[in-house]
Amino acid sequence: MGWAAAFGTLGPVPLLLYAGCLFWTLGYDTIYAHQDKADDAIVGVKSTALKLGNQSARWIAGFYLIFLIATGFAGSLAGFGWGWWPGLVALAGHLAGK
């Protein structure tokens, strides 16, 4: 909403950010869903942790990779300078747990 208010339109930059944030949410939500797997199974909640099971780590990495790619493209399209990329690399390291 902030982008639309400031620029009067939606373009590829906010849409890429929105899509990226969707995948970031899938990643962290899957991590937290693992804490409640047993309860979710009992009450019938269909969580990503139950759906992805032992493959969750691979899926979370994929979700975060899509997030980073979409965010990187958004920053590039927005014309962010060279300082954008080291920050994105630092974020990638954080998401990787390094």
Structure, explained:
With 98 residues, the chain is mainly α. It has one domain. Helices cover 77% and strands 0% of the residues. The chain is built from six helices and no strands. It has helices at residues 2-7, 12-33, 37-43, 48-52, 56-77, 84-96. Helix 2 (12-33) runs antiparallel to helix 5 and helix 5 (56-77) runs antiparallel to helix 6. The longest helix has 22 residues, at 12-33. It is elongated, with a radius of gyration of 16 Å.
What are the key terms here?
single chain; 98 residues; mainly alpha; 6 helices; elongated
Layout of helices and strands, plus pairs?
Elements: H1 2-7, H2 12-33, H3 37-43, H4 48-52, H5 56-77, H6 84-96
Helix pairs in contact: 2-5, 5-6
Helix-strand topology string: HHHHHH
| Low-confidence regions | none
Form type: elongated
**By helix and strand content, what is the structural category?**
mainly alpha
Number of self-contained structural domains: 1
Q: On the 0-100 scale, what is the average pLDDT?
A: 91
Q: Helical content, roughly?
A: over 70%
Strand content: under 5%
Any idea what the radius of gyration is? 16 Å
Number of strands: 0
Q: Gap between N and C termini, in Å?
A: 33 Å
Question: How many individual helices?
Answer: 6
Largest sheet: none
